[in-house]
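Encode chain A's predicted structure.
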Amino acid sequence: MSERLPLTIVSGADYAQREAVIAEASAAFLAAQPANAKIAAILEGLPSGNFLLPTSPQVFVHRIAPGCFCCIGNLTMRVTLNRVLRQKIQHLYLSVASTEHLDNIRQTLKLPPYDQLLLEVSFICL
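Encoded structure for chain A:
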């Protein structure tokens, strides 16, 4: 089995606050990595202002319309995750609006194939 991809889940607060936390964390992560390192962020919700996470050759940003991943059957999250995991990134950030169903989302991420691909290394609740 290959090494599992580090995952940081950010939840709570509003969209801009979650994106700001991910922008700061990803900048720090990339600064400590080789120049060819890449990260991805999957953001639930739509921004109401400026984008804080720029899309670049090192940063893949996927914005998903508002709606609890758990309540919509995880299909949108799973499709997006599958696309992201093919990008050969070094860290994944997942932003979810509410902590209400966070346990269900975490359980989904512990099921195959994600149990062998992802390693939840941190959780940030705003």
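The two ends are 34 Å apart (CA to CA).
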